[in-house]
Amino acid sequence: MKKQIFAAIEAGGTKWIVSVGSDYQTAEQIRIPTEHPDITLAAARDFIHAQIQAQGEIASIGIGSFGPLGVDPTQADYGIIGNTPKPHWAGTDLACAFADFSVPVVIESDVNAAALAEASSLIPRNDGRLIYVTIGTGIGAGVADNGRVSNGVHHPEMGHIRLPKHPKDSYAGHCPAHGDCLEGLACGPAISARWGADLSTLGPDHEANDIIAFYLGAFCANLLLSYAPNVIVLGGGVSLTPGLIERVRQHAFDQLGGYLGRFASPEDLHQVIRTPSLDTFSGVAGAYLLAHGAGYLEGL
Amino acid sequence: MKKQIFAAIEAGGTKWIVSVGSDYQTAEQIRIPTEHPDITLAAARDFIHAQIQAQGEIASIGIGSFGPLGVDPTQADYGIIGNTPKPHWAGTDLACAFADFSVPVVIESDVNAAALAEASSLIPRNDGRLIYVTIGTGIGAGVADNGRVSNGVHHPEMGHIRLPKHPKDSYAGHCPAHGDCLEGLACGPAISARWGADLSTLGPDHEANDIIAFYLGAFCANLLLSYAPNVIVLGGGVSLTPGLIERVRQHAFDQLGGYLGRFASPEDLHQVIRTPSLDTFSGVAGAYLLAHGAGYLEGL
After folding, report:
1. Is A49 on the interface with B (CB under 8 A)?
2. ipTM score here?
3. Which of A280, B103, B157, B279 has the greatest CB tally within 10 Å of its CB?
4. In CATH, what class is B6-109+280-298?
5. How far apart are CA A110 and CA A34, in angstroms?
């Protein structure tokens, strides 16, 4: 039987990755800067059209997009980008933008798509719960539960939760809505605004490392106490800082205060708080799962 | 067709309610103080035996219990109470304690059971997500998602998450493990330890009301940003304080900072942050759903 062909899109706020093929490892893909939606969407469509000529018809399109974004297929705002500060993108209808291909278009948040892919890679039989967190220009998180995205009334907006302030941190925060929410304190721009450089440039001895790890550790501890996931994956640019994840594990362990019996030492967090197993491909791999899948969105 | 009879138990840290019948409204029930497990369990069994004589055989037993508690039927610790500070109860095996009845025993945390019952009462077609929070001797929360309990590796332990401190609150906190986690700051004993009385006795003008509402409001805001539930139900003794829930809604609204478009004013939170619809019966009603159910625990 001939392999099915899909289009998979990681629609980021800085760049889009558009991939056409049967899986993310062997597919053809391009990277497009995120400009005015008219330009970016046209470039994505052109690439898909060209790949259809080369590879044959596609069965469906999966999109993992920056948000906020309507992700409930039963609602009128499904696939429509919400109130983003990114110029021109608020109100963009991603489903309509790809309607001309006349195939199902499955749309989720970028971090939910990444969570699906990491769960499928990291959890045996995909029988468990994984939270994918990106710490970069912003902070976002997605939840995969037994192989499915787990949204409530909307996709998670966990970047904006409140946590205790680090005792040495007097920064008022970077979030236009909340000031010192998690994103306002620990996203890439909040680091640059406080210390004039990113963590890797500041070097491992700079106190910024401990302050950022404190916030991410407290966030992980709160997630372990609430969602009780099998795995938390920390992705995004800030997470690539050498040595950061070890500090995050230590802070999470300290904040748990021995309360969860399954963590007797910080080493017990090594397989639970970790970096992406799919390197930088979590998003695209997740978009393929959305495209294949429709499986998890019954009745689509 | 004859109605099926069940036993339903709300196993609290202070009292047990044991109910036998076909639903919580028409059943026979007793209230037993929580003493040494040998005494409490024997009293519960005796009542069920007597009711079987009067009403006929039971089909199953549902138990919503205080925790921590093993709730995964595939694990060896299923139905066993974990490391509780309550004397003599750690290690108590609730499944074995009722094995002599030779019927299925379905066991969940008390707050997960209450969440199931409130969701079934409050969410049309039970097609959504509800979080039940109890604020009393401790703070705990359970999650019902589309009519099913939503646990991860273990049941939620959300009472122990960390939140920002209220600027006027210098209390070090009441939790033996964490000091100033949510439970350590806002449970009943933390209120009495700080101000020498409960909120209702202190009266509505005492600053304690605003401080406790601040923590519960921040907790609700974090829940709305992460789980995005349709409804958050605030139960337990502290939640009965007159006027408290209005203050909690206001603080939650303030902390959201306009970020979630569905809440344009604090009034939009009235149907979302609310008191129990089943009065004090959420726990027992949930235990009946567990007993009926097994429906949601496939393969039990």
Report:
1. no
2. 0.95
3. B157
4. alpha beta
5. 14
